What we know:
By secondary structure, the chain is of the alpha/beta class. The protein has helices at 16-24, 36-45, 63-76, 105-123, 132-148, 184-187, 191-198, 215-227, 271-290, 297-306, 330-343, 361-369, 388-402, 415-425, 438-448; strands at residues 54-58, 81-84, 96-98, 101-102, 152-156, 173-176, 208-210, 232-234, 240-246, 251-256, 261-266, 314-318, 321-325, 349-354, 374-379, 408-414, 431-436. Strand 14 (349-354), helix 12 (361-369) and strand 15 (374-379) form a beta-alpha-beta unit. The chain is globular and about 60 Å long. It starts with 15 loop residues before the first helix and ends in a 10-residue tail after the last helix.
Amino acid sequence: MEYETAEGQIAPLHTYEQAVEWINNLIPFGIRPGLERIEQLMQLLGNPHRRLKFIHVAGTNGKGSTCAFLTRVLIESGYDVGTFTSPYITKFTNRFQYNGKDIPEETLLRVANRLYPLVQEMAATELGSPTMFEVSTALAIVYYAEECYPDVVVWETGLGGRMDVTNIVHPIVSVITNVGYDHTDILGDTLELIAGEKAGIIKPGVPVVTSVDQPEVIEVLARKAEDCRTTMYLAGRDYTAERLQGDAHSQSFHFQGPFREMDIEIGMQGDHQCANAGLAMMTLEVLRQYMAFVLDDEPLLSGFRHTFWAGRLEKVSDEPPIVLDGAHNPEGAASLVKSIPQTYTYNKLHMLAGMLENKQHEPVFRHLLSIADTLILTEPDFRRKMDADRLYDLVRQIQQDMNKTEVEIIVERDWKQALELLKSRTEREDLGVVTGTLYLISDVRATLLHQSDSEKGW
């Protein structure tokens, strides 16, 4: 069957698989911060992003979970919601959701064919070809503005904020989860520099909600909010989310904000998820109070209770007990190490970890070694993987520095064999944890949940 573009030309992409392959083949153009190409692409499309309402979410960790809380509560409250996130865990279409469901494959193909000639046209100019993430972002905007028309779009940054492609939008509220050391090669190597990049999503007159807690980071964000003449709602000052109790199934926290207070139960695990849920709640309060969003208690509480986000302290197996958590940077590893003993009871803790090359490995493994009995090092199935032997040398050095010689460290390059090793070592009263890059989490999750058609990527 021949597909035609809107202009009546024969479309170059005939199947969903071809469309995804075309977009992924733009990966070699890399991550190129800057908005010139996406601005040009939007102009060629008639600036569809100007017709949408966005909740723009940036931060080092917790972006995906915060987006998930916002999406679920808004859907349960009766709103049509678009959600754009990355990376994806199971399938390329996960990035583009409408009311919690992936973009249909045929719609993605149709929109990709619309973008294809424009991308070719731009590639021939001095701007060069749009990157994979730029084309994905454009695809999301066209999908929401011209195909499904959501009331609001929950819009996650790819990397940073100021020069991130997603920053082409003018949101109704900006959200900054936290600021830590990740992507230091692009965003800078101090918290102030990284915070300056994240603060780039703060816009004139648009309220900003944040759960950052470092004084130097708060100062950077507050200065930007002041320059933009807008209000910043800060965790610990303008609202609080205090954990009350929890078990392996759920936990609850007390939210107190400027407009109301209430106890909220969530199904997601870990202290940090109370912080993310509190941040989402404060964001919803801003929408309710200033933008006339109708958010009644019952659907709101139900939304928080039923929010789920794959690969974040997610228990995927009972026999043996195995939990997945994509803790690929120091802050994520610190949250994992705090949350595991808080959430689960176990005899021994066996961990499987694989990393990408460009991450801060030393602080991550200092955290992991502090609670592990066994640490299996492997390699994710991805081109920028960290060599397992090099990782072993580094971890051995950290182990000696920490005097944690009782932790057994094993190298198994093949992640499938490493997973079998983890399963065989994890007794019924133990706990197995798979952590590190989401590329590893994605493959392990697909294997344990028997998802044979799983895709993965950034």
